[in-house]
C-alpha cells in the first residue's frame, strides 16, 4: 500500500485498498496514515477554529482608542461569521444523505450513478476523499465460477453476433445488387397479421410472452407493466401468485401516509388493475336481460325507463352479482356491467343477418379475478339455457385497466389521453366532453356511474407528458353545465373497445425504436404527429364514487386493450401534476387502505359470505398461523391461557380466524347456560344448527344485502333472516382503542330478566355479586358498558356518578374540617383508617372488571368479526369493517332500539379488554 | 443514540479597575464603554484560563467538583483583543464553572488586573453562542458610537441595564436552558 500517491482512476485501487485502516504506530505514523483522512481531519480542524487577534490590535500605541476598538469588534464579527459558514460547509454528511428519501438507494449509496446528476460530482469527490470502494461494472472481474462462465459466454456470443452481422451486411449488399438488376421486388401475396384467438364459451390462454420470460409465467401471468412494477413494488412471491397473477402488493418505499394524502388532499394514486377480469356477453336483448336477471340484477329501476341510459350504454352499473344455489341466492362478487350502444341505421355490421328483427347486444362484465371463474361458469350455465343461445368470451387478457384516484386524477388523465382525430372537430362527442373536464377535482362530482368511450392517440407520441393548463376558477359555468346536463347520450356509436378488430389494430402500435427514429427527425420539444401507422386506441373511462356519501374521492377506471396499457402507464406515471409531483404508484395494500379509510368494504377480504371471500379468509388464516409459528414461544399469544375475566379462559374460537364457523357452529350447546336463557330460546325455532354442522361451515355463511336487511328492519312482523346470514358493517370505536383483523364483535350484554333492577344498579356495590356467585358475569354489565358512552356520561348527573364511584371504591373518607384542631384531625384519620371496607376475602383479579374496565360479554353475545381494522387517518380514530350475524343484529336492534342496538363491543383476538363501538351498515 | 451533551458559555471580561470618566478628557477622549471592555493582555492564553478556572472550581467544590469539570472543560475561542471567550463544558456541570467564573476577580496572569468574568450566554450549540457574540459586538459598536456622540452618558447603563430589549447587552438569553434559576445574577456589575 503506497500511501504517498494514491491513484483512484482505475479498477486497481479497489482491490488493494481497504476502507478502514488500523491506527498506525507512533513513529512514522504520519506518513503511513491515509492522506485523505488526515487532510479531512485538518479540514475539520480548520473549519472549527475561530480566528482571533492579539491584544495590541485593539490598542493604539498601548493606549485605548475608539477606532481600534471598533475595528477589533468588526474583526471578531467577521471571524465568527466565517466560522459559522465554514462549519456548516464542512459538516459530516455525505451527499447521498441529502437525496430525498424516495430517491435513496441505501444499498447502492457507493455508486455515484445512483445519485442525482447535480450531486454526482460532489459524491465522486467525497468518495475519493474517504476512499470508498467504488464499483465500475465494466471493469469488474468475475469472482465466482458461474460469473466467469457467464462472462465467457457473453464474449463468445459477442463474437458470434459480430460475425452474423457482418454476414448479413454482405448478403444485403449482394441482394441490393441483384435487385438493382431485376428491378423492384414486389410482394406477391398480402397476408393478414395473425390475430390472437379468442374462443367462445371457454377460457382463453394468457398472451404469448417473450421466450425469455415465459418460464417465469407458467403458474401466473404478468401484468403488462410487470417489468416496471417489479422494480418499484413488492410483488407477490414467485411461488405464490395471487389469483394467478403477479400483483404488486405495496411499493417498496414507505407510503402509508403519502398514499392517504395523495388519495384525499393532493396528488394521485395510480394502479395497474389489468388483473381485473372482463367477460364479454353477446346475444339477443331478451336473452341478455334474462341472464342478467338470473345474476341478481332484479332491481325494478334497471329494466324500466330509469335504466334506459344504462341499457343504451351511456352509464355503467356496479353491484354485487349473485347466483341461485339450491334454495337460496348466494353472492358471487362485485361486478361492473357496460352495454355496447346499439348501432343505428340499416347498414350495421353488428346485427346478425339471420335474425334481423332481434337486436343483438354486447356487454362487458368486469369483475374481480378471485370470483372470475365462479362467475364465468355461472354465466356459461345461464347462457346455454337460453334460446337462441348467447355466448360469452373470456376477455381477461384482451382488456387491461388502470385505476386512478385523488384530486389530480382528472387532470392526469387529461394530460395523458389525447383524443384521436383525423381532422379537428371529428373526435366525437365523448372525447369533447372528456376534454371539457379540466378543473374537476373529484371524479365523484360527475354524474353517478358516468362513462366515456372514445379513441386516443398513442400516448408515446407526446411522451414526456406536459402539465395541462387548468382554467382558473374551477367552477366555471361551462364545466358546471357539462356536469349537470352530461351530454353524452345523443348519437351514441358502438364503443371501439367492444370491437375485436379495433382492439387488435390498437395493439399493433409501432415499436419504440421507430418512434425514437421519428423523434430524431422531429423538431426538439415538438410532439409527434399521427401517421398511418399510429392506430387509434379505443378506451372506456368509468367514473365511480364510493358507496359512502359525502365528499369522498371517486375513482377513474381506464379500460384499454391489454397491450396498450404499458404505453399509457409510462406516460401516466410521469405526468407532472400542477400541484407538484407525479402520480404515486399503488399496490394491493393501498387499495385496501383507501377502501378502509373511505369506510367501504374491499372485495374479497371484507366479504366472507362469498366463495372468494371465504377462500381469502382461509388463506389468511394459514398465513397468520405461519406467522405465529415463527415467533418464539415467549412472544406469541397463548390462546389457551387468555384470561377474559370472570373465570373465562381461552380465546373464543380460533384466534387466527374470523371464526364464523364457531359463531354459527354447534359449539353453542357446549357453553354452560349461565343466565342467558332468553337468548337461546329465541333462536331455537329459527336456526336448525345441528343439521348442517359441517367443517366447511364458512362456505355456508351467506351475505345479505343492505337493502334486504333494512327491509327486514322495517317489516312489522318479526321476520327472520335466512340462517347463517351475515351483514357487512362499518364500525367506529366510540372512545378509544383500535380494532385489528379477527377482532371479536359482541353486542351489549342482554339484561337478565330475573334481576329486576332498573338503571339504579349503580347504587349496588359492585363487589357484592362477584363475591356471591363466582365465575359469572356481573349482572349490571350492560350498564357498565353504557356508562362508557361519552354522551351518556355527560347526561347522568354528577351525584349519581359520584355514587357510582363510591360504590367502586367504598365510602368516601370523612371530610376534615379546616378549623379542626390536631386532636380531631388525628381522630378522623384513625377512623378513616379503621373503617375502610375492603372486601374480604379480596376478589380475584379480573373477576368483576379488567383493570377498572368492564368485562367482555359472554360468548352468547358474540355477533361477528372484524375483517379489516386499523387506526383511520381520515377519521382520526380506530375504525373497522366487519361482518356480523344478521340474526343477532336484528335481535339486538329490535330489543334495544336503533341507538343502543347499534352499540357493540370490539375485542381484539388475544386481548381481554374490549372497546365500545358503533356499527353502521356498510 | 448516545450523545455528548454540552453547554457553551459565552464569557466577556469586564475590567473594573479604571474609574469611569478617567479618559473622557484629554487629547483623545475615549468613551467609558471602552474602559470596561478593554482588550486583555496578550499573556492570557487558553491554558492559563483553564488552569485558573480549574483551581477555582477545586477551591469552591473540592475534588469532586474539579474532577467532574476537569475532563470536559475546553476553551473554544479566546479573543484577547475583545476580551471574549467561549467555553465548552458538559451539560451537567456547567454551573460549577459559572460559579467559579463568578468568584474569579482577576485576570489569571502574573499581576493580573481586577476584572469580572461575565457569562452572557449559555447555549447548547456553539452556533447560537456565536450568533450572540456577533450581536453583542454589533451592539457594542453602536453603543460606543452613541456615547462618543454624547447621546448617552452612562456606560454602565449601556452595559447592564438598558431598557430597550432589542438593544440590550444584558440579555442572557438562555432559551435553550430550562432550569428556572439559570437567569440569575445579571446585575453583578
UniProtKB/TrEMBL annotation, chain A:
Q: Return the InterPro entries for the record.
A: Pop1 (IPR039182), POP1_C (IPR055079), Pop1_N (IPR009723), POPLD_dom (IPR012590)
State where the protein is found.
Nucleus
- Which superkingdom, per the lineage? Eukaryota
Question: POP1 C-terminal domain: from which residue to which, for each copy?
Answer: 726-920
Record bears the keyword tRNA processing: yes
Bias class Acidic residues marks the residues at 678-692
The segment annotated Disordered runs over 1-46, 125-145, 164-192, 506-529, 599-632, 668-698, 796-820
Q: Name the GO cellular-component terms.
A: nucleolar ribonuclease P complex; ribonuclease MRP complex
Domain (Pop1 N-terminal): give its ranges. 69-283
The name this protein carries in UniProt is Ribonucleases P/MRP protein subunit POP1-domain-containing protein
Report the source organism. Podospora appendiculata
UniProtKB/TrEMBL annotation, chain B:
Keyword match ATP-binding: no
What one GO molecular function would you report for this record? ribonuclease P RNA binding
Instruction: Give me the Gene Ontology terms describing cellular component.
Output: multimeric ribonuclease P complex; nucleolus; ribonuclease MRP complex
Q: Which UniProt keywords apply?
A: Hydrolase, Nucleus, tRNA processing
Residue stretches in coiled coil: none
Reactions performed catalytically: Endonucleolytic cleavage of RNA, removing 5'-extranucleotides from tRNA precursor
Region of interest: Disordered: 169-189
Annotated InterPro entries: Pop5/Rpp14/Rnp2-like, Rnp2-like_sf
EC number per UniProt = 3.1.26.5
> What GO biological process term is on the record, naming one?
tRNA 5'-leader removal
Acidic residues bias located where?
Answer: 176-189
Q: Where in the cell is it found?
A: Nucleus
Family membership: Belongs to the eukaryotic/archaeal RNase P protein component 2 family.
Summarizing the function annotation, the protein's role is: Component of ribonuclease P, a protein complex that generates mature tRNA molecules by cleaving their 5'-ends. Also a component of RNase MRP, which cleaves pre-rRNA sequences.
Enumerate the PANTHER family for this protein: RIBONUCLEASE P PROTEIN SUBUNIT P14 (PTHR15441), RIBONUCLEASE P_MRP PROTEIN SUBUNIT POP5 (PTHR15441:SF2)
This protein's name: Ribonuclease P/MRP protein subunit POP5
Amino acid at each position: 500500500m503506497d500511501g504517498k500517491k494514491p491513484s483512484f482512476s482505475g479498477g486497481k485501487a479497489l482491490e488493494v485498498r481497504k476502507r478502514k485502516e488500523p491506527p498506525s504506530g507512533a513513529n512514522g505514523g504520519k506518513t503511513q496514515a491515509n492522506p485523505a483522512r488526515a487532510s479531512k481531519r485538518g479540514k475539520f480542524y480548520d473549519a472549527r477554529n475561530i480566528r482571533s487577534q492579539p491584544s495590541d490590535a485593539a490598542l493604539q500605541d498601548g493606549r485605548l482608542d475608539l477606532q481600534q476598538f471598533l475595528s477589533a469588534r468588526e474583526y471578531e464579527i467577521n471571524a465568527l461569521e466565517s466560522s459559522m459558514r465554514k462549519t456548516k460547509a464542512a459538516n459530516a454528511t455525505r451527499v447521498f444523505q441529502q437525496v430525498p428519501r424516495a430517491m435513496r438507494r441505501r444499498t447502492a449509496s457507493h455508486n455515484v450513478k445512483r445519485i442525482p446528476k447535480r450531486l454526482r460530482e460532489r459524491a465522486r469527490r467525497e468518495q475519493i476523499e474517504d476512499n470508498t470502494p467504488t464499483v465500475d461494472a465494466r471493469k469488474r472481474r468475475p469472482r465466482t465460477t458461474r460469473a466467469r462462465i457467464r462472462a465467457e459466454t457473453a464474449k463468445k456470443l459477442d463474437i458470434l453476433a459480430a460475425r452474423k452481422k457482418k454476414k448479413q451486411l454482405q448478403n444485403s449488399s449482394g441482394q441490393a445488387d441483384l435487385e438493382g438488376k431485376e428491378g423492384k421486388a414486389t410482394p406477391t401475396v398480402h397476408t393478414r397479421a395473425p390475430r390472437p384467438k379468442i374462443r367462445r364459451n371457454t377460457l382463453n390462454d394468457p398472451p404469448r410472452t417473450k421466450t425469455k420470460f415465459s418460464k417465469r409465467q407458467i403458474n401466473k401471468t404478468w401484468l403488462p407493466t410487470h417489468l416496471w412494477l417489479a422494480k418499484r413494488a413488492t410483488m407477490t412471491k414467485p411461488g405464490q401468485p395471487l389469483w394467478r397473477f403477479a400483483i404488486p402488493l405495496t411499493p417498496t418505499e414507505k407510503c402509508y401516509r403519502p398514499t392517504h394524502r395523495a388519495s384525499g388532499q393532493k396528488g394521485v394514486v395510480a394502479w395497474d388493475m389489468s388483473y381485473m377480469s372482463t367477460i364479454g356477453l353477446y346475444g339477443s336483448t331478451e336473452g341478455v336481460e334474462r341472464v342478467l336477471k338470473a345474476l341478481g340484477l332484479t332491481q325494478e329501476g334497471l329494466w324500466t325507463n330509469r335504466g334506459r341510459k344504462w341499457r343504451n350504454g351511456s352509464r355503467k352499473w356496479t353491484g354485487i352479482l349473485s347466483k341461485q344455489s339450491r334454495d337460496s341466492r348466494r353472492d358471487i362478487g362485485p361486478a361492473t356491467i357496460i352495454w355496447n350502444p346499439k348501432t343505428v341505421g340499416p347498414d350495421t355490421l353488428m346485427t346478425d343477418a339471420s335474425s334481423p328483427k332481434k337486436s343483438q347486444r354486447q356487454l362487458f362484465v368486469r369483475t374481480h379475478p378471485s370470483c372470475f371463474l365462479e362467475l364465468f361458469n355461472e354465466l356459461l350455465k345461464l347462457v346455454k339455457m337460453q334460446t337462441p343461445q348467447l355466448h360469452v368470451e373470456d376477455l381477461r387478457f384482451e382488456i387491461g385497466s388502470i385505476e386512478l384516484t385523488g384530486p389530480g386524477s382528472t387532470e392526469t388523465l387529461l394530460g395523458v389521453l389525447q383524443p384521436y382525430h383525423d381532422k379537428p372537430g371529428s373526435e366525437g362527442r365523448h372525447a369533447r366532453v372528456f376534454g371539457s373536464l379540466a378543473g374537476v377535482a373529484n371524479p365523484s362530482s360527475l354524474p353517478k356511474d358516468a362513462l366515456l368511450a372514445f379513441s386516443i392517440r398513442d400516448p408515446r407520441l407526446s411522451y414526456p407528458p406536459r402539465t395541462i393548463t387548468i382554467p382558473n376558477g374551477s367552477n366555471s359555468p361551462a364545466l358546471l353545465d357539462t356536469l349537470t346536463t352530461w351530454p353524452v347520450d345523443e348519437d351514441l356509436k358502438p364503443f371501439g373497445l367492444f370491437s375485436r378488430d379495433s382492439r387488435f389494430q390498437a395493439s399493433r402500435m409501432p415499436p419504440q425504436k421507430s418512434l425514437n427514429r421519428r423523434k430524431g427527425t422531429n423538431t426538439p420539444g415538438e410532439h409527434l404527429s399521427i401517421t398511418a401507422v399510429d392506430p387509434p386506441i379505443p378506451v372506456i373511462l368509468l367514473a365511480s364514487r364510493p358507496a359512502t356519501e359525502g365528499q369522498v374521492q371517486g375513482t377513474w377506471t381506464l379500460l384499454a386493450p391489454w397491450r396498450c396499457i404499458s404505453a399509457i402507464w409510462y406516460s401516466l406515471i410521469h405526468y407532472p401534476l400542477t400541484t407538484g409531483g407525479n402520480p404515486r404508484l399503488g399496490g394491493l395494500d393501498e387499495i385496501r387502505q383507501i377502501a378502509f379509510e373511505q369506510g367501504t368494504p374491499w372485495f374479497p377480504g371484507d366479504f366472507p359470505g362469498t366463495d372468494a371471500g371465504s377462500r381469502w379468509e382461509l388463506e389468511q388464516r394459514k398465513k397468520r398461523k405461519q406467522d405465529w409459528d415463527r415467533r418464539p414461544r415467549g412472544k406469541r399469544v397463548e390462546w389457551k391461557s387468555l384470561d377474559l375475566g370472570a373465570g373465562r379462559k381461552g380465546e373464543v374460537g380460533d384466534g387466527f380466524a374470523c371464526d364464523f364457523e364457531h359463531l354459527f357452529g354447534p359449539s353453542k350447546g357446549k357453553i354452560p347456560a349461565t343466565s342467558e336463557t332468553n337468548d337461546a330460546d329465541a333462536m331455537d325455532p329459527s336456526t336448525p344448527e345441528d343439521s348442517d354442522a359441517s367443517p366447511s361451515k364458512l362456505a355456508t355463511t351467506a351475505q345479505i344485502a343492505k337493502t334486504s336487511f333494512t327491509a327486514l328492519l322495517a317489516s312489522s312482523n318479526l321476520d327472520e333472516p335466512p340462517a347463517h346470514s351475515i351483514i357487512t358493517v362499518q364500525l367506529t370505536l366510540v372512545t378509544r382503542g383500535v380494532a385489528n383483523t379477527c377482532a371479536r364483535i359482541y353486542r351489549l350484554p342482554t339484561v337478565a330478566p330475573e334481576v329486576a333492577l332498573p338503571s339504579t344498579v349503580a347504587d349496588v356495590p359492585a363487589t357484592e355479586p362477584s363475591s356471591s356467585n363466582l365465575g359469572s358475569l356481573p349482572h349490571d354489565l350492560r350498564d357498565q358498558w353504557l356508562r362508557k358512552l361519552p354522551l351518556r356520561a355527560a347526561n347522568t348527573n354528577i351525584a349519581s356518578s359520584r355514587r357510582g364511584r363510591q360504590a367502586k371504591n367504598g365510602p368516601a373518607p370523612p371530610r376534615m374540617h379546616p378549623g379542626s384542631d390536631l386532636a380531631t384531625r388525628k381522630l378522623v384519620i384513625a377512623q378513616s383508617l379503621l373503617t375502610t371496607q375492603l372486601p374480604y376475602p379480596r376478589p380475584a383479579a379480573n373477576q368483576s372488571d379488567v383493570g377498572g374496565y368492564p368485562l367482555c360479554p359472554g360468548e352468547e353475545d358474540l355477533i361477528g368479526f372484524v375483517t379489516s381494522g386499523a387506526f383511520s387517518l381520515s377519521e382520526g380514530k380506530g375504525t373497522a369493517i366487519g361482518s356480523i350475524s344478521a340474526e343477532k343484529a336484528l335481535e339486538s336492534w329490535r330489543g334495544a332500539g336503533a341507538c343502543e342496538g347499534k352499540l357493540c363491543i370490539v375485542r381484539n383476538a388475544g386481548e381481554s379488554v374490549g372497546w365500545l363501538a358503533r356499527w353502521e351498515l356498510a | 443514540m448516545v450523545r455528548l451533551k454540552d453547554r457553551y458559555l459565552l464569557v466577556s471580561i469586564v475590567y473594573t479597575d479604571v474609574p469611569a470618566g478617567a479618559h473622557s478628557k484629554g487629547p483623545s477622549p475615549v468613551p467609558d464603554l471602552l474602559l470596561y471592555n478593554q482588550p486583555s493582555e496578550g499573556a492570557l492564553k487558553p491554558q492559563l484560563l483553564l488552569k485558573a478556572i480549574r483551581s477555582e472550581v477545586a477551591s469552591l467544590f473540592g475534588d469532586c467538583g474539579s474532577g467532574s469539570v476537569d475532563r470536559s472543560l475546553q476553551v473554544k475561542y479566546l479573543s484577547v483583543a475583545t476580551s471574549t471567550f467561549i467555553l465548552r463544558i458538559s451539560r451537567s456541570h456547567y454551573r460549577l464553572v459559572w460559579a467559579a467564573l463568578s468568584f474569579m476577580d482577576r485576570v489569571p496572569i502574573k499581576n493580573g488586573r481586577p476584572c469580572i468574568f461575565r457569562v452572557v450566554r449559555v447555549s447548547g450549540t456553539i452556533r447560537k453562542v456565536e450568533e450572540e457574540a456577533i450581536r453583542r459586538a454589533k451592539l457594542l459598536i453602536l453603543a460606543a458610537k452613541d456615547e462618543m456622540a454624547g447621546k448617552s452618558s452612562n456606560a454602565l447603563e449601556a452595559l447592564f441595564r438598558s431598557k430597550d430589549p432589542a438593544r440590550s447587552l444584558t440579555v442572557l438569553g438562555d432559551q435553550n436552558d430550562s432550569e428556572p434559576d439559570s437567569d440569575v445574577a445579571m446585575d453583578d456589575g
